[in-house]
Amino acid sequence: MSTGTDIMQIPANPFPFTFEVATTALVIIDMQRDFIEPGGFGETLGNNVALLAAIVPASQAVLAAWRTAGGLVVHTREAHEADLSDCPPAKRERGNPSLRIGDEGPMGRILVKGEPGNQIIAELAPLAGEIVIDKPGKGAFYATPLSSLLQQAGIKTLLFMGVTTEVCVQTSMREANDRGYDCLLLEDCTESYFPHFKAAALEMMSAQGAIVGWTAPSAPVLAALAQAAGAQPH
Ligand code: C5J
Questions:
Q1: What residues contact 187, with CB distance under 8 A and at least 6 apart?
Q2: Residues known to be catalytic
Q3: Pocket probe mutation, ligand 1, options 91, 163, 165, 191, max atoms within 8 Å of Cβ
Q4: Residues paired with 161 in a beta bridge
Q5: Residue 233: what pLDDT?
Q6: Which of 89, 128, 142, 201 is deepest in the core (most CB within 10 A)?
Q7: Distance (Å, rounded) from C-alpha 118 to C-alpha 80?
């Protein structure tokens, strides 16, 4: 078993990314039924939600390896209070969705805490003790305790997965970057309802010398974790 202090370096865009498990958190953004299954928020906005399910197997593999390595796991949910006191009217009233935030849908009230559709999908369900952040906005840091929880845990580096790439993932990664975290987005563990938005988001985040952060497939992360585990005496 690794002690978590092995320095790992993996090939990434735009240049190699360095991390150690002990000071890194895996942040899984909004892998909720509301975005991934029919009848939730994503579908009410007119999106084809089937696209997002493709990243579940790769995300499960990273989560399992990260847990085995003993790394900190953070799950987020886009979630509002039942009285919608944390949902700005501008957010609820925008556009012409088939159901608005707080309306009753086939999986309960749309984007409301505690409703069936608001839960993280079973394949990536949080374990007891893992951090679960309910966030009223797109970013994981806005109006949440995430910043202080990461500071308490001595975290310096973040690995991002989740949906959707150009909305909540990108917003959260930009917030993290502004707070001084080195961030890596796992390319096959994030997805958008719009493939060209995903491609553009990946490109713009790693451009200009990793102006927001790095991107890489999950394979080198899995390989580095496996190598660290194998290198340790049992
Ligand atoms: C959206 C999200 N797309 N989790 N939320 O509204 O990206």
A1: 202, 215, 216, 217, 218
A2: 30, 135, 168
A3: 163
A4: 28
A5: 55
A6: 201
A7: 9
Q: Which residues contact 202 (CB under 8 A, 6 or more apart)?
A: 13, 165, 185, 187, 215
* 152 alpha carbon – ligand 1 mean position (Å): 27
- Per-residue DSSP letter, 126: P
Contact (Cβ atoms closer than 8 angstroms) between residue 58 and residue 52: no
- Residue 227 amino acid letter: Q
Extended strands (E) in 37-172: 72-78, 104-105, 108-109, 131-135, 157-163
Give yes or no for a contact between 40 and 34, defined as CB atoms under 8 angstroms apart. Answer: yes
How far does the centroid of ligand 1 lie from the alpha carbon of residue 138, in Å? 6
Q: Could you give the maximum distance between any two Cα atoms of the chain, in Å?
A: 59
Ligand 1 contacts (CB < 6 A) are: 30, 35, 78, 138, 163-164, 167-168
- pTM given for the model: 0.96
Q: Are 176 and 41 in contact (CB under 8 A)?
A: no
CB 39 within 8 A of CB 107: yes
Give φ, ψ of 5 to 5 degrees. Answer: -100, 5
